[in-house]
Amino acid sequence: MTSTQHADLVIHGGRIVSPDSERQESIAIKDGRVLAIGAPDTMPAAHETLDAAGLHILPGAIDVHVHFRDPGYPQKEDFASGTAAAAFGGVTTVFDMPNTLPTIATPEALAAKHVIAKEKAYVDYGLYAVLGEPSLDHIDALVEGGIIGFKLYMGNTFGKVPSPTTGAMLEAFELVAPTGKRISLHAETNSIMERRETRLRESGRTDPLAHLAARPDVVAVEAVARAAILAEWTGARIHILHISSSAELRPLAEAKARGVDITGETCPHYLMLSSDDYERLRGVIRVNPPVREAVNQEKLWAALEDGTIDMIATDHAPHAIDEKTRADIWTVDCGFPGVETQMPLMLTAMSGRQGSIRDYVKWSAEKPAKTWGLYPRKGALDVGSDADIAIVDMNRPWTIDDALIQSRAKISPFHGMRASALPIHTLVRGRFVMKDRILQEDSRGWGGSVHSIQAMPPGEVRNGETTMAAITSHDPFANIEATS
Ligand code: NCD
Ligand code: ZN
After folding, report:
1. Could you give the CA distance from residue 175 to residue 172 in angstroms, rounded to a whole number?
2. CB-side exposure of 205: number of CA atoms within 13 Å?
3. pLDDT at 353
4. Integer Cα distance of 192 and 202 in angstroms
5. Contact 433, 439 (CB under 8 A)
6. How far is Cα 307 from Cα 249, in angstroms, rounded to an integer?
7. Cα atoms in the 13 Å half-sphere on the side-chain side of 22
8. Which residues, including other chains, have CB under 8 Å from residue 89's CB and lie 6 or more apart?
9. Peptide linkage before 376 cis (omega within 30 of 0)
10. Span 264-321, pLDDT tens digits
11. Does domain 59-421 have CATH number 3.20.20.140?
12. 302 Cα to the center of ligand 2, angstroms
């Protein structure tokens, strides 16, 4: 206390939530960081104060899986509309996926995207580079160009990024392992689902459930298991995106038990929607991996609660209304927006489960920050942390209305759902980006890339003597000559 420094902002009266505690305390912010936390009378003088009585103060959510479509698909989203949606959802950092136009596979494409993001972003962000044949020659240049990690598509999805063969995947893992960067995987095996889709189309099926029939659990289970084996062999760190089935939990848990550096996320739609919703929602619910049978939901919740699944992300995948409402399911674009509704929906669902808001903070902020080397600058509200804050009314009943969301994609399977919690203010590094449910337009461009604060532990390389680089650069007789 008794700092002689003036704070820029002091927030009084709120309930500050961390994974270990909930405390009614004040929080002082200076130069974008948390300066002090404590009783109101210990706070320094401030240029501005905010009364948060009755509200909860959470570390802003870190959504490690969004598609903001910029550059390439402005009718779906751009970096301004996407990060505005994040701000309204209490999300203060996003990791944006590389399936834009062009795909982020080269340092030139990455540099161009950095310019776009810097100009438009309301919240902080990390940019992913794609990992596959087109980027294998650029791994170090992409890392130097400023990425949060790599994304590898084991299965085809929106943007038609070709999925690498297992051979190319092994080489890719070998190249990324020494960099320490984490590889996030769309873990669905392309050859299985492509074959099934072809057969389903030939049989004349165009109904929504045909999408699920093309991609049964085994599509994901086989991919998770294979990715874990390649990570174990090479030492690469991996993250399993959008876990949709309870069946995937076994290869995930087994890999963790073997010491593989593997993490996983699930998304609200896998916890809250099921195959029972396809008839009602038709193309709107089409997403990869598919929303599955209701029996999965409880097991996914339990896996979050026991730590097998590490975090919650959204796979915010916006598309225009006409792209989601075509009659033939095979022609409907996959995915829907979610960055803005994750926090309200999760907090609402957890109150029904008697889940703790502290657990939510762990899954939405702490674990993502730790997994990508941003903690405790991000993902925590401790003295010295970035003042990335979601101020939430935990007792505000409202109904999700697609017409009113910030995202350009005014169509989602969450339309009409009831929520009991609502972010009221969102701050990024001490600055309001959303205040009283109003976008702070002068904060456009305030967001910045978090790659520069990322501190991943050094990469660990296993079986280095077998890598493609090792076997093609060695003189096989070198050892024999030296010892004879
Ligand atoms: C995503 C998209 O539209 O970019 N779609 C989806 O169904 N999830 C791609 C992806 O994350 O696989
Ligand atoms: Zn995906």
Report:
1. 5
2. 14
3. 81
4. 16
5. yes
6. 11
7. 12
8. 61, 63, 339, 340, 341, 342, 343, 344, 423
9. yes
10. 999 999 999 999 999 999 999 999 999 999 999 999 999 999 999 999 999 999 999 9
11. yes
12. 22
State the span(s) of the chain assigned CATH 3.20.20.140: 59-421
Residue 91: its H or E element: strand 91-96
Q: How far is the CA of 314 from the centre of ligand 2 (A)?
A: 10
Q: Classify 10 as helix, strand or coil.
A: strand
Strands 26-30 and 7-12, sheet pairing:
antiparallel
Sign of CA dihedral 294, 295, 298, 299: negative
Residue 186 alpha carbon, nearest atom of ligand 1: 12
Determine the distance separating the centroid of ligand 2 and the alpha carbon of 287, expressed in angstroms: 9
Architecture of the domain delimited by 7-54? Roll (2.30)
For 270, the token pair is 């896998």
Q: Which ranges constitute the DSSP H helices of 16-138?
A: 79-88, 107-120
Residue 130, amino acid:
V
Whether pLDDT at 398 is above 90:
yes
Give the global pTM: 0.97
Which residue among 100, 128, 160, 288 has the greatest number of ligand 1 atoms within 8 angstroms of its CB, and so is best to mutate?
Answer: 288
Spatial contact of 272 and 318, defined as CB atoms under 8 Å apart: no
Q: What is the pLDDT of residue 61?
A: 99
Q: Which of 19, 7, 12, 56 lies closest to 38, judged by CA?
A: 12
Task: Please tell me the distance from the alpha carbon of residue 55 to that of residue 425, in angstroms, as a whole number.
Answer: 10
Give the residues across from 392 on adjacent strands.
56, 423
Closest CA to 313 of 257, 358, 371, 255: 371
Ligand 1 atom, smallest distance to 69 CA: 4
38 forms bridges with which residues in the sheet? 26
pLDDT of res. 476: 60
**Ligand 1 binding site (Cβ under 6 Å of any ligand atom):** 67, 99, 157-159, 186, 287-288, 315, 317, 334-335
Residues 294, 25: Cα–Cα separation, whole Å: 41
CA of 483 to the centre of ligand 2 (A): 51
Going from the Cα of 11 to the center of ligand 2, the distance in angstroms, rounded, reads: 38
CA angle 364, 113, 64 (to 5 degrees): 10
Kindly report, as residue ranges, where domains of CATH 2.30.40.10 are found in the chain: 7-54
